[in-house]
């Protein structure tokens, strides 16, 4: 989702993704379009409300809400340029940038391992910045020389001078 919401183009998210709605393809096309849970008298669950979501569904809902609300007014994400770097050791990094701001997006594709990596290969972008704001966690990063990303996750950093 972090990729879809930060790369070029208009993101399209299939309904139910925000609460991890899944079905098996083996159940036929009709089950792929099942109703979102809630809103009907006969629904036992109502995922429209926090109380109707499981903990993991709420985590996904909060994750998407955070990124979607952040990107709403981000011209750099809507119209900015993109420069990406060849993945190295399971880490994929790209930058969205314009004349006003730069955002670094990095992914760790490792199934199990958190990865810490040196950022010197991204100096053409990072040399202009002293710190960053990680959008998902809200953490301020005062040292951009090394970054850590948990397994199967992403970081989105608004770079600051």
Overview of this protein structure:
- With 161 residues, this protein is α+β, with helices and mostly antiparallel strands.
- The protein folds into two domains: 2-71, no CATH class; 77-160, Immunoglobulin-like (Sandwich), CATH 2.60.40.1180.
- The chain is built from five helices and eight strands; from the N terminus they run ααααββββαββββ.
- It has helices spanning 2-6, 29-32, 55-71, 75-79, 123-126; strands at residues 81-88, 91-97, 102-108, 115-118, 131-134, 140-141, 146-149, 153-160.
- Strands 1-2-3-8-5-6 form a six-stranded antiparallel beta sheet. It has a two-stranded antiparallel sheet with strand order 4-7.
- The model has no long low-confidence stretch (mean pLDDT 90).
Major sheet: 6 strands, antiparallel
**Counted beta strands:** 8
Please tell me the overall pLDDT: 90
CATH architecture type of the largest domain: Sandwich
Name the strands of the widest sheet in spatial order: 1-2-3-8-5-6
Described by the principal axes of the CA atoms, the overall outline is: elongated
CATH topology of the largest domain: Immunoglobulin-like
Low-pLDDT stretches: none
The separation of the N and C termini measures 28 Å
Q: CATH H-level name of the largest domain... which superfamily?
A: Golgi alpha-mannosidase II
